[in-house]
Amino acid sequence: MKVKATALGFYDHVRRRPGNVFRLTKDEDFTPLWMVEVPEDTPELTTPVGPIKDGHVPDFSHPAREPVAMSQVGGGKVPKAGKEAAKKAAANVKKGEGKGKK
């Protein structure tokens, strides 16, 4: 079955971006959460990785080799709740209350 990604997803060890068309290895892998079925004659399509902010264009010959840190999901911003939790965890470790305590 051929499908088109409607949102960012991960399938067969490859990050799939919206608009990517690819073949499922098993029909049971289909999920309507981020895929739609397309006709079998639809050409497969993979979105190339764009340049990083400094203008460097990485040479990724396969989308699976794209480092996770380059993801554009969420614009690279940490949610406010995440920042507060990180500060609290760091403070607890300094006090000896976190995972660093033996």
Arithmetic mean of pLDDT = 74
User: What is the oligomeric state here?
Assistant: single chain
The strand count comes to 5
- What structural category do the secondary elements indicate? alpha+beta
Order of helices and strands: EEEEEH
Number of helices: 1
Radius of gyration computed on alpha carbons: 19 Å
Distance between the termini: 53 Å
Low confidence ranges:
none
Largest sheet: 3 strands, antiparallel
Overall morphology: elongated
Question: Taking strands numbered 1, 2, ... along the chain, how are they ordered across the largest sheet?
Answer: 4-1-5
Helix content: 10-25%
Strand content: 15-25%
What does this structure look like?
Helix content is 16%, strand content 16%. With 102 residues, the chain is α+β, with helices and mostly antiparallel strands. The chain has a domain at 1-47. The strands form two sheets. It has a three-stranded antiparallel beta sheet with strand order 4-1-5, with no helix packed on it. Strands 2-3 form a two-stranded antiparallel ribbon. The longest helix has 16 residues, at 80-95. The protein is elongated and about 60 Å long. It starts with a strand and ends in a 7-residue tail after the last helix.
